[in-house]
Model the fold of this input.
Amino acid sequence: TLVNYSLKEFLPMVYDVTARFLVEQKGYPKHLLQCEDPELKLMRQGLILDRTTHHILDVSSTGELISVHDGKCFLTKEKISSIYPDSSWPHHGAFYKAFDCDVSSSPTSYFFFDSPFVSPVVPLITKHLGTLSRAEPNFEEKSTIFYKDLIESFSFNYNPDNFKTKSGFYFTEMIKNTDKYICKASQKFKDRLKELKDNGVKLVVVTASHIDYTELLMHHAYGPDWRDYFDLVCCRARKPGFFTSSPSSRPFFLWNNKLKVVDKGIISELDPKGTNLEGHWTMVDKWIKCNAEKPGRVAYVGDSFKSDIISTKLFTSWDLFAIVLEGRNFPRDEVENCDHVNKKRHLNKSDSIIGSNSWGSFFGSQDSMTMTAGKLLAHSDLTVSDVEKLSDLNLDEDFGSGCFYDFDPY
Done:
């Protein structure tokens, strides 16, 4: 969340490392390695793969189907209504409830593309399904195996332990070309962090990444002294369990930086000078309140729907500031002159930076809001398009629930 990725480079790279796994490790056809520009436009967060129908769906907050892709093409409204009664997704209720009751696992029949680390595989799925005939006797079997291999590719590429061993394709590429994929933090944002810290605001890093990968990203984005901007660092948080599990089942450990190993003993107090690993949000909450210079609220900044946005609001007492990159497509003219509480409109739409010309807006429309936009309004106290936009935030400012701070998509 604290690091901005160069999305025009990063998103195709995620597609590439996933395709490489399928081709080189699982023997899929080499044509999967090529992704043309029209196919790239199928990338978008907030979509759902329904494994029971093998359709990729864009679902509204009320369950209506905004768009459906069958692997070969988008279905017409007539075709959608012939397959789905009332043009609604019958599993919407179960899927929606799964998020709010058990965000650590959604029903296995569906897959939610909730981050830039998985959304680029949407065109990979359509590319593969497009080569199969639904009339084939073994279509179901082939599709099931493909989905299993796809999930395995995420473990292969994103396992935190792979950074140390330089295993998988993702970490080796990030280590080799960090400058290509990671943006430098602006001096304005770094100055704002320093100002907040100097004024007694406690700044805590809570990341699912291990310390070695965190070090690579933060060193590149903020410089070798990146820790000086923060009061506490917690790595390998294993979200959403960091929020949803019981405190007793999620102890903290300490990273031994000299030996480059995890100390075996459980720690009872967090170490502001070291790297705290795993743990539970309640211990961080206690540390902040015990060390804060004056009473105040805690705001958590996150960008993953399952790991951050929903779990934080449902399982903690913290306020939630959501980062939604798609908001960059709908910038306000002037953030400073915007009435955030009443959400007055000051639109100045830019060329698409992240999103999809094929699927349409990540947010949908006022008449047909997407499921993800509905979740934002329900769970986020403030939504920004870029973590650095928080530089302009007045800590005493009041916000309406679900407020879009620096953009307006409707």
Notes: The first strand starts at residue 47 and ends at 50. The chain has a mean pLDDT of 88.
